[in-house]
Amino acid sequence: MSGATDPRLLQLAEGDNVLITTMSIPAGEELLVDGHAVELASAVSLGFKVAATDLEEGTVAVRFGMPIGRTTTAVSRGDVVHTHNLESLYLHTHARGEE
Question: How far apart are CA 58 and CA 70, in angstroms?
Answer without folding.
Answer: 5
